[in-house]
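notes to self, project folder thing:

trying the whole complex as one job this time. last attempt i did each chain seperately and stitching them together was a nightmare. two parts in total, labels are on each line so i dont mix them up again. if this works i'll redo the older ones the same way
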Amino acid sequence: MRHFETKIPADNAQVGVNKKHESAINHVAGRATYIDDHIAPENCLHAYPVISKISKGRVVKKDIESLKKLKGVKTVLTAEDIPGKSDIGPVFPGDKLIADEKIEFHGQVLMLVVADSYDNARRAARKAQIETSAEEPLVDIHRAIQQKKWVRPPHKMQRGDAEKAIANAPYQLTGEFELGGQEHFYLEGQVSLVNPQEDGGMFVQCSTQHPTEIQHLVAEVLNLPFNKVTVEMRRMGGGFGGKETQAAQWACLAAVASHYTGQPVKIRLARADDFKLTGKRHPFFNQYRVGFDERGLVQGADITVTGYCGYTPDLSDAIVDRAMFHADNAYYYPAVSITGNRAFSNTVSNTAFRGFGGPQGMIVAESMMDDIARKVGQDPLEIRKLNLYQPGRDQTPYHQTVEQHIVLEMMEALETSCRYKSRREEIIEFNKTSEVIKKGLALTPVKFGISFTVQHLNQAGALVHVYTDGSIHLNHGGTEMGQGLHTKVAQIVAQVFSVDLDSVQVSATRTDKVPNTSPTAASSGADLNGMAALNAANKIRNRLIDFIHQHFGSEQDSVVFENSRVVHQKGELTFKDLVNLAYMNRVSLSANGYYATPKIHYNRETASGHPFFYFAHGVACTEVEIDCLTGESSVMRADILHDVGNSLNPAIDIGQIEGAFIQGMGWLTTEDLKWKDSGELASFNPATYKIPAIGDTPAEFNVELYDSANPETSVFRSKAVGEPPFMLAISVWCALRDAVASITDYQWAPPLDPPATSEQILKAVQQAKRWNQE
Amino acid sequence: MISFMLNHSRLTVDDIEPSMSMLDYLRTRKQLNGTKEGCASGDCGACTVLLGEINQDGELVYKSLNSCLLMVAACHGKHVVTIEALTPAKLSISESDLHPVQKAMVDCHGSQCGFCTPGFVMSLYAMYITFSEYPGQEKVIEYLSGNLCRCTGYRPILEAAQTCYEYPRVSLIDTKTVLSTLSEILLGPEPSLVMKGKSCLIPQNLNQLCEIKSETSGVRLVAGATDLALEFSQNLSVTPALVYVGAVDEMRKYEETDDEIIIGAALPYSQFLPIFYNSFPETQEVFHRLGSLQVRNAGTLGGSLGNASPIGDPAPLLIALGAKVNLASSNGVRSVKVDDFFTGYRTTVMSANEVIVSVSVPKKIENQRLFFYKVSKRIEDDISAVCVAVKLTLDGEEQIVTSIKTGWGGVAAVPVSAPHFESHLINKTFNQQNIHQAVYHLNKDFSPMSDVRASSEYRMEVARNLIDRCWYELSSNEVVRVKHAAL
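result (full assembly):
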């Protein structure tokens, strides 16, 4: 595998410069089409699920016949009608396409209505009569922990004797907190359109981050070989992890309906149903014990993270693993024990969401740093810096050595640029005299491991065609969900040929163009697919160079691609003329590319290895205000310095950082998932579940990229950016705690269970006031 | 049959469900798929369109609306503008074809997944045609507070809102043609939609409306549809007899007498609030947070009161101000104090044949102080956990409370006042000590519920503390509000 780095000519750089999103013009004109925008075929049917109204129990009787008589209804399907596999669990079994008898969560699909219109399907599904017998659901995680009701066995990482180190340390602290989940709230809900084909196969258009898995599951559900199913995905209206596994059920259901009716079938979930029927970010219950010395230097830490997984494993094994992998964040624990539990509950199965457990683990480390700082009477920033990984103190709890040490430098740079010290003093002064409004400040780091922790997923393919007019067609296995992946990969291909970006056309992701792909997840999109596209483009470029050598007699080394021209020893010609000439001389102008991430391995038995190719870093400093009468809060200012290696596209990277920060801020402040005791989701629409609105954007919001190449041989020495900046928002939560801590003169910060809603903040304020009185 | 303009065309429609939303009409009947469905409940703004209508001065004015909450029936004689109208109708477009707000969104990297983008563009477009120069960030946030974006974090969109004013100004609407087309439609036959036993009648005056109300039982009145549309889109309910009241002149008036302000029941918030603020500037903060601009462009006082929602923000204010609801029927007219208007959860004193014509608000008298607060999980476009209005008259150096009237939302099944609490402050000095004693009587006035928005304990605590906030605002130099773009 050849890793590629070329000098990027300053006057014709396609990579490393701001380029607009490849669909920007269509986006703003309302011309970018999403699945539901396609003009459906004349005979298209619409399917809608009938869902459970209880969280646990059994189906006693389904009244299918009267349902079939409702207006517009073509057919009604149940679990028995599934031709092939009925379990669509992505890694482990459990996720039923349609429940047979056993009901395991409120909102579970019990039947499927197929009708002549969306409206008729939805109305009929609503009217379905299903008799059930209810049992008491398990909704409370603490009961699950007590009963050790896990969806997967616990896992443990250890280095040294944490128990002993904590016991021997001069100080010990313990803490625990509940941490809310998060609804993805992609603006485009789940949607699939399936068209039966003449060969008995299915053509599936689906808003998914994982076309290959959709292909496999549709095929298995219908008992078809994979080659009979083609999945196409042009763009998603947002994914954020919510369309990694959660898109499959709707595609498979539409396919089953299509199988029975022989007609195209579309399924689109209405927003409230999307809330109820699809998995979310895992809520967690986290506990820690830490031992440290007088300076606040950690001696040992014992951490337990427990994810609320819902009723099946889905991706929870890897998600809780990633929480464990990040329970250190950027800090060295000389002796450490980290336990991860995967708790069962009778709720929808929780799933991937930007950060994939990382944020839920990382916040433990940050909570610990704050609590240590209060205990030893130091500014939390000093405690954070003191405990950072550094040469010699560089072993992670999973025995990977941290090799790149730039966090301290980044923290110090941001500390200076955002005037941390003087603002800290101003805030302390302000809080002394302000009775109602208190300000808080926090500067926190992020170190996030890049690579799928499931090793085989770290591979990608791409397909590049050069046409005889010099225009280029690019296809790769990654999916576009707004993150600018297609733009970045096209930039990479344009750079290889040194042509204008406009001459590279990216087409929809399709399983018949690039097969056996991994999900576009784990921030890996550009790292993997960019490298595969680079590989494909380089193959063609090398053929062209060889051709020039043969045809003109120029040395290969003399060939230079620049500004849509190709210069060689014996002359020069336009790129267009060269490819046309090469074609006339029977040189192949099409190539596929492939990439597999090197170096990575992890032994889960021993909980050790090198699971991450590299780490991405960032630091954020956030200032907040809280209202001690109402608990209302506001983020006043955020300064961010983030490490994307050598940026492929600074505008897109900054967009990812800003968007991730605000999304993380929402998770930790206003996004409050609530379930009733019955297990029914209570916050099931945007009227009751509040993601950040435009006024929540900090009045001062400064984002800078840290100038540093990826020491690993990533594509153009860039770094992944999708998830890492999400965790910069932990600084918001720490700043809110800091504001509350001002009430105790920074001697103690009460617990503040995220999301830190007004209600939680007011509770913490009252606790702080009581602490002062005691 | 109804007629309206959709982008460049005049349309006549009679073959649709009378309750059909403009969003469904655009997407399922006209294949105008640039308008997106994000939530179909008026909370995300992805389906934002512009609606132009001729105002009382004969001018053509445009406002942004959520097309999911906009009934097609409400568009008679109006101009619906969708995202498709902003660029030329050719197969492929380039940057030079874009409107300045679109170009700015591209140049500032304001779109990522692109799904919310058409809605943002339409809200920006509404701002652009309303203000010929950059109106400042506060206005931008007002115009965009009803548009949710999950990708960008909004920063580039805020930048685009400013940048669009740096490009040469473009005007796309041919005002003259639109005015003449709409005038022609309005002079035409009286509109209504009837289909398979279901109907939406569109009376043009109060007499007609009262007649319908007394003749047909079970009719549902609809003005801005910001609430009713959810019954259709979320509950899938069917209402056989709808009556759109937005064309009834008597319900769209705003009048001031010497001692009263009379606000038409079908006048959208955004149309009367700017004038109302002249008399009651203290209400601006909460009304700015009532729904989003798209919702305020549609929603009405009549709708809020008629629905008798326990969490509507206007009712607490109207209770505190001693406002009256003016009702009419074919039997005559009567007025009811807002205090006495609600009888239970979503029920009122109105009889089946009555309609709300207007609301009369007594003007402020000297020494009267007004406080109007709202606490919600998110500051913008969120339903109150607690909403309170306090009207207070203080006398002399001693700050003796000579009169106090409060109205509360979110704390009971109906908007309520708090006579027990009030009685413990009357004739007392308005100081913290007396306040702290008085607020402990609030639990005799109401006991809030716990729900998805807040716990009963939090609601009660905040209710008490908001009276403290009044004192801080009145008697101290303390800052009592976090700095937030929408506060």
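what i see at first glance: DSSP finds 18 helices and 19 strands in chain B.
need to look closer tmrw
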